[in-house]
Every structure is written in structure tokens, then in C-alpha cells.
Task: structure prediction
Amino acid sequence: MSLAIVYSRASMGVQAPLVTIEVHLSNGKPNFTLVGLPEKTVKEAQDRVRSALLNAEFKYPAKRITVNLAPADLPKEGGRFDLPIAIGMLAASGYIDAEKLKQFEFIGELALTGQLRAVHGVIPAILAAKKAKRKCIIAYGNANEASLVSDQETYFAHSLLEVVQFLNNQGELPLAKDMTAQSAVDFSGENQKDLTDIIGQQHAKRALIIAAAGQHNLLFLGPPGTGKTMLASRLTGLLPEMTDQEAIETASVASLVQNELNFHNWKQRPFRAPHHSASTPALVGGGC
Result:
């Protein structure tokens, strides 16, 4: 089959819109054309995919290759489309049964050796794939955060070759949810900040307790060094543990930032302390 369709997910904040990757091989002068509003990092996938296929001992098709990332009006960025593009080329070349790809979504960056590298924003993509009733195949480096979505069937692999063998029923891939033991929740409070650490400040402590109990807003006023931030940081210890839905939403945001997600107490409510001089764009983000 000279045409293959592969599913993946883009990253737009905590949203993960579906991206349908269409790969077509046709006769003519060997060429690689990538369309669908790709940014520079996506365009560079051509060289990464070529080297990954050759180093995984696959034959790179000497044909006119056209790759379309649909929808065409959605900007695509990052290396997350390397794996689905490679899978699409292999399916169009006959190495993989294209019909089997309908039940999977692929996310991962390829090294020149054919190894899979982790990308940002995997949790929103897995949640979106769950709603679409499709399974996910991701890189090993994303397996820990993927294990937090325990009710979704997500596989992880170390290399492109492992993924191809799995799709051809020549091998098995481990499930991310089986790594739960490595990312187990530890909400014992061992590292939780507590009001008992603060001496004095009885009125402020009482205000914190009332705000936590009634879910009220709270404003501390005072000169620098009087303990406003120290008191505010204890509020998370007074609040109840997040529900699974709240924790997953918070983890989705953290998965967009490298090394931001703490797997050992991911249900602990986050605390942020921006500087008082921070501008509005610095707090909520700027740009187009």
C-alpha cells in the first residue's frame, strides 16, 4: 500500500488536538515533501527519520514521499511527530499492516540511531487518546508520567524497531500502567510544610486555617521578612488531598515543563511564589 494514515497529537497548552499524518509514496524523482504548517523543528524530522530508518536496518524508500500533517491550519512544533512519520513511511512501504494503525496514536522523537526520546505534554495527549478510544505508543522516557493515567492502555518502547516488531506481532511492549510502583504516590507528609514549623504568628495561622476550611481567598500585607511567603507556603498542607481528576489536570500542566512533575507526591497541591514585581505577561505568559 502506497498510502498510510497514522494518528498523533499536537501540544497546545493543556489541549492535545488530533493530528492525522498521511504518508504517500509515489513514483518519480526521490524527494521528501512535508506539508501541514510545520515549524522548523518538524521540518527537520526528514533527516532524523531517514537516519533512524537506516540504522534500524529498514530500507529508506527511493520514491517521491509526501507527508501531510492535518489539519493544515494547526501549527505543528517539536519532535513529537518523528515516530508517527516513520511508522507511516514503513506502513506505506509494506513493512507494517496499515489497518492495524487505526487503533493507535504515536508520540515520540527519534534519535539518529532509531532510539525513542521523550517529549513534553504527554499526559494531555494520553487523556485525549483515551476519549478517542485509541491506545498510545510513547517513548520509555515518558512512561513514568504516562503511568499516572492508570485507566488508559499506553505502551512504551525504547526504539523504533521495538514498535515495528510489536505492530507486526513479533514482540510485546510493556504497559506504562505497570510502572506505577516506580511512580507511586507518597502523600505521607514527610516533606510537607506544616504550621508547627512557625513560632508565633497566631492571628496569621488562624486566618490560614479559616481560609483553608472555607475555601476563601487570603491576602497577607506587611513589610519584607515578616513571614508572608512562609505562611502562605503552609496553606497547601492544610488543604485536602487532590482528587484523581484534579491531580491529573495539575499533572497535565506540569508535564508541559521539563523536570516539573514530581512523581512521588503528584497529588500534593502546588504552591507558586512569583516575585512581587512580576508583570502580567510574566505570570500568565505572553506572545501570540
Notes: The longest strand covers residues 18-26. The first helix runs from residue 40 to 43.
